[in-house]
Amino acid sequence: IKKSLVFPFRYLTAYIQIAKLTPSNSMRAVLKALNKALDISCANVPKFEGETLIVLDTSGSMTEPCNYKSEMTPAQMGAVFAAILAKSNDCDFMTFDKTARYVHLNALDSTITMINSIKYNGTDTCFETIFATANKRYDRVIIFSDQQGWNDSDLNRTYSAYKKRYDAN
């Protein structure tokens, strides 16, 4: 797992498909193995210095399948990477749609448990709410989104105000 070239969200894809099967001892064993594999894959994630904010878009457009050949949604893919970064680094986590909110993800939980704890509100995508809600200076802000956002002028204004408020760049 540590040296595989498998994208982490593929473990979640397999987990979701197998979880649909009739429960059995062998199915539960496979689900446990996939859960463990996803956690092991976190060892490859870079460690960041300083303060990091991980932000996940939880708007309605994120819950639509990526394409006609896949049931995987941008929300699921984004949640995998957001949870892995939050688990591997001591960072803050926020979700956003029409509003932004800090969410506590327990880094001691499995990655799949963290992913399943994320709530999707299904409203608009307003990037400016991230910087209006951020309550401290961050060295980096990593946003997972399908980029279906609006109000670029509001984003520029709130981002500029955030940078000025916390002397951040």
List the helices and strands and how they pair.
Layout: H1 8-19, H2 25-41, E1 52-57, H3 74-88, E2 92-96, E3 100-102, H4 111-117, H5 128-133, E4 140-144, H6 152-166
Parallel strand pairs: 1-2, 1-4
Antiparallel strand pairs: 2-3
Helix pairs in contact: 1-2, 3-4
Structure overview:
The chain is of the alpha/beta class and 169 residues long. It is 43% helix and 11% strand. The chain contains six helices and four strands; from the N terminus they run ααβαββααβα. Strands 3-2-1-4 form a four-stranded mixed β-sheet. The chain starts with 7 loop residues before the first helix and ends with a helix.
Order of helices and strands: HHEHEEHHEH
Strand order of the largest sheet: 3-2-1-4
Question: What is the tally of helical segments?
Answer: 6
Helix content: 40-55%
What is the tally of beta strands?
Answer: 4
Main pleated-sheet profile:
4 strands, mixed
- Calculate Rg over CA atoms: 17 Å
N-end to C-end Cα span = 36 Å
- Proportion of residues in extended strands: 5-15%
- Mean residue pLDDT: 88
Low-confidence spans: none
| Structural class assignment | alpha/beta
Outline:
The chain is α/β, with parallel strands linked by helices. 43% of the residues lie in helices and 11% in strands.
Q: Which key terms come to mind for this protein?
A:
alpha/beta; 169 residues; 6 helices; four-stranded mixed sheet; 43% helix; single chain
